[in-house]
Amino acid sequence: MTDVSGRTDGVEVNLDIHLAHSARMYDFYLGGTTNFPADREAAGRALAVFPYARSAARANRAFMRRSTRLLARSGIRQFLDIGTGIPTSPNLHEVAQRIAPDAAVVYADNDPIVLLHAQALLRGTEQGVTAYVQGDVREPDALLEAAARTLDFDRPVALSMNALLHFVPDDAHRITEGLKARLPRGSALVISHLTPDFAPDETARLIQVYTAAGTPVAACTRDRFGEFFTGWDLLDPGLVATTRWNPSPEDDTEHITDAGASCYGAVAVRP
């Protein structure tokens, strides 16, 4: 496991560049360059059946920025972002520390290519803290133990799992409940998740493409998405397409339709 300084001591980094990877495909959708031919080929197949992949990725990133801004403005000073993905500025810590320079942010991901780019996630303010841990959401105890080197879990923490849980379809709700149980009152939960509700045929074909590429994916309906937040208080506007969650003109995503987003997003606070 990498320590919170972002070093890779003792970690064998195997990129498997001949196999498509969801994080690198996502980077391609966003116009990034940290991807390889296998990723671009798989992304091309995804776009052929699901033309909303690029707009959905943009809408998801914009949702991350808006939710982070709102929570930082509300007084939360600790953030745990699981399923970080390949760094794409502005990253979560840049958004949070722009509002609260003393904010502490921990990123966690199990993708070795994210580990290689972790230094880009560690350039925060002098007053704040940014850290990275190599961890898997399917092993939440180890992940939280590593995050606790930086975060104080006796004080509120904003836990973000954006565009992550549809990649752990069999365990998503169990994992989420376990993580929620470790967070104190006043903490926040931020989730975005693929849904079939807006473009069912295209979403079904997208799932087939990812599954064929070796990455199981599951979409969830609005009711099933709402179960992630059981026992917590949803913030307005509740369970909505990511573009409809407190939209802001500066994000330039207002023109994206619900089908173009194809993800629900929501934020809740532990009472």
Strand-helix topology:
Blueprint: H1 22-29, H2 37-49, H3 53-73, E1 78-82, H4 92-99, E2 104-109, H5 112-116, E3 129-134, H6 140-147, E4 158-162, H7 172-181, E5 188-194, H8 200-212, H9 222-226, E6 233-234, E7 240-241, H10 258-261, E8 263-269
Parallel strand pairs: 1-2, 1-4, 2-3, 4-5
Antiparallel strand pairs: 5-8, 6-8, 7-8
Helix pairs in contact: 1-2, 2-8, 3-4
Explain this structure:
The protein is of the alpha/beta class and 271 residues long. 35% of the residues lie in helices and 15% in strands. It has ten helices and eight strands. Strands 1, 2, 3, 4, 5, 6, 7 and 8 form an eight-stranded mixed sheet that branches. Helix 1 packs across helix 2. The relative contact order is 0.16.
Short description:
The chain is of the alpha/beta class. The chain has ten helices and eight strands. Helix 7 (172-181) links the parallel strand 4 (158-162) and strand 5.
Round the mean pLDDT to the nearest integer and report it.
Answer: 91
Please write the string of helix (H) and strand (E) elements.
HHHEHEHEHEHEHHEEHE
Measured between the Cα atoms of the first and last residue, the distance is: 34 Å
Poorly predicted ranges: 1-11
Strand content: 5-15%
Which class best fits the helix and strand makeup?
alpha/beta
Shape: globular
- The gyration radius over C-alpha positions equals 17 Å
User: Share of helix among residues?
Assistant: 25-40%
